[in-house]
Each structure stands twice: as C-alpha cells, then as structure tokens.
Specification:
This protein is of the alpha/beta class. The protein has 17 helices and 21 strands. The protein starts with a strand and ends with a helix.
C-alpha cells in the first residue's frame, strides 16, 4: 500500500506566551474524500504529529525520512509557503520519486514564484476534495487527471487541465459529524465550516472567486457538529465561513447554539456582514456566547468601496456594529489602507472615525496584493505596485505614494494603538520572559554565547551564526550574548550586520510595513550575568543600538 503524507506548517511568531493555531482542516477533508473513493484502498494516510508544530526543518525532514511517503500533500498559506517549498526541496533531493502535491490559498495561476521553483508535481487551485482521489489514481497509474483546477508539471512547465471538476457540496461531501478527524486542538479550539462560497466578490480577496455558488450545511447538522465538538472537549469554536450570516438558516443556527450553550461553556468566533444584522440576531449572538465577531468595513470612501466591489451601506454597517456592542459582543472592525481610489485624507478620515468608536477593536491592515485576486490581476491597470514575496504589501498606488503608505501606517499606529507581532520589552536584561528554547530541534530557538573576550571571538561566533542560519533559514532565532563584562559596542554592530546579511522572513516583511528596517525573526539580545556589574550608560547605549535594528 502506498503512503500519502499530509503536511501543513504552522505560522511562526515570536510570542512564547500565546496560543498557536494550526488546525489541519484540509488534511481531514482530503483524507475523508479519499476514503469515500475506491482509490482509498491503495493509500495509507499519514500525519505528522501535533508536536511537529514545534520542530525545525531538519527534525521534520527526519520524520519524513522515517515515513518514506510515496506522495506528500502540502497546504500552502501566505505565512508558510516559502518554508514549505524549502522543506519540500530537501525532501525531493532525498527522495526523488516522492510525488509532491500542493494546494491551499497560495495556489493561483498568477503566483509570482510558486511555479518557477519547479518543486511540486501537481498544484490544485481552489477545492481539492473532489479531485484529490483522481490525482492519486493518476500518480499511481501514470495517467493524468484532466481538471481545469489542476496543474501538472511537465519538465520545467506546468500544464492546466480543461475539464470542469466534480461538484462539491458540504451537505453531501463533508466528513460526518462523528468523523474521527473532528476534534479540538490541545487548547480546546476547533474550526467549523457551515458554508462554502461567498456572496461577495471583493477585489482584494481570492475566496469568493474560487467558487461561483454557495453550498451550506443544514442547520440541524451544524448543531450536531457543535454537540460532538463540545463532547470531545472543545472550549472555543471558530466558524471559518467568510460571511457567517450568509447561511440561509442563520437564525435557526444561532438560536440553536444559544439553546445548547446555556451554560456558556463554549465560546464562538465568526466573521459576518454587520449591515444586514437585526437587533434580534445581535442579541442571539450574545446569548450564544459569541465572544468576538469580525466585521469588514475596509474603507469609508464610497468610490474606493465601488472599485473593490464591496457593496457596503455605511449607515447600516454602523448600525450593525452598534447592535453588537450594545448586546455585549466584542467587535473587531477591519480597515485597510493602500486600496485603489484612496487618498491620504480618506485614510485620515477613516482613522479619526475609528478613534471615536468605543468598545470596538480596530484592525488596520495594509492592502495585500494576494495571488488569485482581482486586485493583483488588475494591478497595472489600477497603478498598484507591490512586493512579489509574502505578504505582498501594496507599496504605492495612483493616489498614494510610498511615503503616504508609511504615513498611513504611522497614523494608525499612533491614533489606534495598532501593534504588530510581539515586540521585545527590552534587549538588555538579566532575564527575558520571551526567551526561546535552546532545544536543537525547536523551530523557535535561542543560541547563547557566554564567556570572556567575546569581541576577540567575534569571527568564530559570527561564523556559527551564519552556519545555523544557512542550515535553518526559515525558523525563528534569538542570538543571546552573555558577557562577563562590558564588551565594545562594535561587537553588537558586527553581529547585527551578520544577521542582516540573510534574507528576511515573512515575519520581517510584515513588520517592515510599519517599522522599516527592523527585524523580529532573528534578534540579538544581551543577557547580563548574575553577580556581575555593568555600567548603566553601557546598558543604555547597547539597548538603543539593538532597538534600532530589532523589534
């Protein structure tokens, strides 16, 4: 029997205190689809354990080497595509005959680098469940599966199929409520999808363009899945529907949740359209214990909303937000800058509006030119310039210069208190609460250099830093200097330059949108040794130097 391994690498951030989500929903769906097809008789499904979310690439490669899969199905997101392709390239070098299948939001025909890397054998755009068994059958028998959303590698080129893929309905094709894959993560958090498709066709989002119609789970089955997840230890359920209240039985669902969650043991999260919300629905959402609801507003400029195909009535949206906050629901409102048609004054007006709202969390985001979106396809027409590496931030538009974009981010940060990532409270100290593990296998790792005359050893230490970054370029690093005495500040400059020689990670590029030049994925810190005394002026100068380079 052949082995198929499912791979979904986690988002890596610098917060060691928070909870990290990496629910492999795609693997659950794909495995169930394979089991429902006769092709499932030829394949054994393998999953890397949850502990692998903490492992570096070398450790993951060792696990894959032990499994020796005949095929790997990898899910690509904005935050993991570069690391996943790097790992898969190492797998390909070790096992040339292992077939590599990629899917997920990052797969799009206009992707700037996915197909140039020449790593996957098969790429799936949009829904993978209906075509997955056919792809594995083709890999096993040597005959291609001809579907319009499937690209096959032929030498150094990819060829897309022509046939319409089979339809997929949540009602008939989703794994049943008691399927073994439905379970919360170790923190008690679970995902639940009740609709596939979106009634909106927003130009900045690719989700609504991957499917032409909406399919929904019946309300009765939604509630049964919640009961099962609750019985299996769930404490929080996040609805992953792009517009939760687009479900045709939305009222029945939230009434049912309110009834079965009277003890408020479960918390819920969703995204919805506030402009269609009624007072009764807002009260039911609060009673059901929806602790947070995300609302997309994007802009308060009607022309910009028209250009991004966002049919928003601002007066109704404001009313919906008010209904939710009055009911006691915590609301997060999404704002965007760098959209077509926006001027700096529009953004200033939007941010001032946001600052006046009470009890509402504002999420102010730089526009991203995501692969597969209308905005990316029309980038030249709309005079949008953007980076070709994740997160693909828009750098300028016809009405916003690069400096305007920077100014907009600064306004949002100062006015709304928006903060990205997890900043270091200090870079020089005796203890660091956010210090990573020194474990060799960790994907967030600290490396500590102790001793006398570290300046004299600077070349050897710099060589070691370069070596580990070359071997593990996609994990997070903290390089910690623990000197016996006050070393020259030139030593820090030397190590800063060594670290910054290396390609920034996606975390750094996110950070660069509001703190240009600073890095967070690899940081340099000074840990003061117990019992040793260091001058305050030296500590202050070292802190200032490190703070200019790192976040």
């Amino acid at each position: 029997m052949k082995k198929i391994l499912f791979l979904q690498l986690p988002l890596l951030d610098t917060d060691v205190t928070g909870r990290h989500e990496n629910v492999p929903l795609a693997a659950i769906y794909l495995q169930h689809a394979l089991e429902q097809d006769s092709e499932g008789n030829y394949w054994s499904c393998r999953h890397i354990t949850k502990q692998a979310d903490t492992l570096n690439d070398q450790s993951l490669l060792r696990i894959i080497t032990r499994i020796k899969p005949d095929a790997i199905a990898a899910t690509l997101y904005l935050w993991n595509i570069e690391r996943t392709l790097h790992l898969l390239a190492r797998v390909r070098a070790a096992f040339p005959h292992t077939h590599i299948i990629v899917g997920g939001p990052e797969v799009a025909r206009d992707h700037p680098f996915l197909f140039k890397r020449n790593i996957p054998d098969v790429a799936v755009y949009g829904e993978g469940e209906p075509v997955f068994p056919h792809i594995l059958r083709a890999l096993r028998t040597g005959r291609c599966a001809d579907f319009s959303n499937v690209a096959w590698r032929c030498g150094k080129k990819f060829s897309w199929g022509k046939k319409t893929p089979p339809p997929y309905s949540l009602k008939t094709n989703l794994p049943p409520p008691r399927y073994r894959g439905w379970k919360p993560d170790p923190h008690g958090m679970a995902y639940l999808e009740t609709t596939r498709g979106c009634p909106l066709r927003c130009a900045f989002c690719c989700y609504g363009h991957r499917r032409s119609r909406i399919t929904a789970l019946p309300a009765k089955e939604v509630l049964e899945r919640i009961r099962v997840l609750r019985a299996r230890g769930a404490r929080e359920i996040r609805f992953i529907d792009p517009t939760f209240n687009a479900h045709p039985e939305f009222d029945i669902i939230i009434s049912g949740i309110a009834a079965l969650n009277r003890d408020r043991r479960l918390e819920f999260f969703c995204e919805l359209r506030a402009e269609t919300l009624t007072a009764k629905q807002a009260l039911l959402l609060a009673r059901a214990n929806f602790r947070e609801i995300e609302v997309g507003m994007q802009s308060r400029n009607p022309e910009t909303l028209r250009l991004i195909r966002r049919p928003t009535r601002l007066d109704k949206l404001d009313r919906g937000i008010e209904l939710l906050t009055r009911a006691g629901v915590r609301v997060t409102v999404d704002l965007m800058y760098g959209l077509p048609g926006q001027a700096l004054d529009d953004i200033r007006t939007m941010i001032r509006w946001a600052a006046r709202q009470r009890g509402v969390r504002m999420q102010c985001l730089q526009t991203l030119l995501l692969p597969g979106t209308e905005l990316r396809a029309r980038g030249k027409e709309l005079t949008l310039t953007a980076a070709d590496k994740p997160p693909y931030p828009v750098q300028s538009t016809a009405s916003l210069s690069a400096s305007d974009i920077r100014h907009a981010e600064q306004m949002a940060r100062e006015t709304l208190g928006v903060q990205m990532d997890c900043p270091m409270p200090y870079f020089v100290g005796r203890q660091f609460p956010g210090l990573f593990s020194e474990r060799n296998s960790a994907n967030r790792r600290a490396m500590i250099f102790r001793g006398k005359d570290l300046y004299g050893l600077r070349e050897a230490i710099a060589y070691r830093i370069k070596d580990v970054l070359r071997n593990e370029p996609h994990i997070l690093w903290q390089f910690v200097i623990e000197p016996d005495y006050e070393e020259p500040l030139d030593l820090l400059e030397y190590f800063i330059a060594t670290i910054q020689e290396h390609e920034p990670l996606v975390l750094d590029r996110f950070l660069d949108m509001h703190s240009p030049g600073k890095k967070a994925a690899r940081r340099l810190m000074i840990q003061l040794r117990p019992g040793k005394r260091y001058g305050r002026d030296w500590q202050a100068a070292a802190e200032e130097l490190l703070r200019t380079a790192f976040f």
